[in-house]
Structure formats: structure tokens, C-alpha cells
Amino acid sequence: MSVQEVQLRSTLAGFTAEGKLHSLSVWFILALRLMMGLAFFQSGFDKVLSGSFSAAGYLQNAPPANGSPVAGLFVAMGQTPWFVDFVNVAVPWGEVLIGLGLIFGALTRLAAFFGAFMMLMFYLGNWSVSHGYINGDFAYMLVFLSVAAFGAGRILGLDAYIEQYDLGGETLVERYPWARYLLG
User: How would you write the chain as a 3-class SS string?
Assistant: First the structure.
């Protein structure tokens, strides 16, 4: 077994953070990706199979009841029929697709972005600060962002192969550098 440390350094807005990452961390990054993938796939698959998922009641009732600072927005969304129809499809199928993307490590950053966005919406909708501002929804959002930041799709995932796909002597990400924001 080969173990080593990798130096990390990043500067953002004039502040520099640096540290060392142990090479065994790759397995934990993979575990985070797979855990979130399985959790989202299972949640979405259950909703799809039930055929009875409806967000209307939640949107109109839960955020106002728990004192969400954006309760009015959720109520407005819940009172807009076309939006409720959209959410009734987007949530279950979004969870399935995000889960599959993470499980297979394909379009991982895109999947993780949408997973983080969904968790932000759940955080605001499930608002509860009685035990502080950090709850499971917030923590899951950070896990999704970590999966994206670490390029977890390159760890035993399809993104490693998709990025290197040969397009006439250039790899896909050489020809289309913007693809790095979707893959990895």
C-alpha cells in the first residue's frame, strides 16, 4: 500500500488556505460520493415507484409552520399549479438522476451542484434553528459541494474516462475546457 501526503493550496479573495491531504483520503471521498448517490437514488426511486409524490401540501404548509424566512416564496410556489407540476416531476426524477450520476461518477460536478441546490431548498423549507443553524440538510449540502470540489467522479468513476475521450487528437476537456465544470 502506497501512502503519501498531497500538498493543497488555494487563494481566494486574497486569503490563502493550505494543508496536506493524506492519500488514503481518496477512499473517503469515494465513500462520500457513493453514500450520497445511493441515498438520493433510493429516495427518488421510492418516490417514482409510489407514483403519488406531491409537493403542494409541503410547499404551502411546512415552511410557514416552521417559521422559514422564505415561507412566502414556498407558499407562492405551492399555489402555482404549473410549478407544482414541475416540482412533482423534478424532485423524484432529479433525485434518481443525481443518485445515478454520483454512483457511476458521471457528470459528477453537475449532479453534485443540483444535489446541493436541492439540499439548500430543503434546508430553507425544513427551517429549524432551535438547535442552531446547522442541520442535516445543511450538512448534506456541504457534502455535495465537497464531492464536486474534490472531483470525486475521477475516483473510480466514468468522468475519468469521459474527460479523456479522444476528439481528433485532443481530449474532450482540452477541446471544451468548460466541460470541467460538469465532469470530475
Answer: CCCCEEEEEEEECCEEEEEEEECCHHHHHHHHHHHHHHHHHHHHHHHHHHCCCCCHHHHHHHHHHHCCCCHHHHHHHHCCHHHHHHHHHHHHHHHHHHHHHHHHCCCHHHHHHHHHHHHHHHHHHCCCCECECCCHHHHHHHHHHHHHHCCHHHCCCCHHHHHCCEECCEEHHHHCHHHHHCCC
The span from the CA of 77 to the CA of 83, in Å, is 6
In the chain, what percentage of residues exceed pLDDT 70?
99
d(CA 36, CA 128): 22
CA dihedral 76, 82, 83, 87 (to 10 degrees): 140
CA dist., res. 86 & res. 70, Å (int): 20
What confidence tens digit (pLDDT) does each residue in 128-143 have?
887 888 989 999 999 9
Q: pTM value? A: 0.89
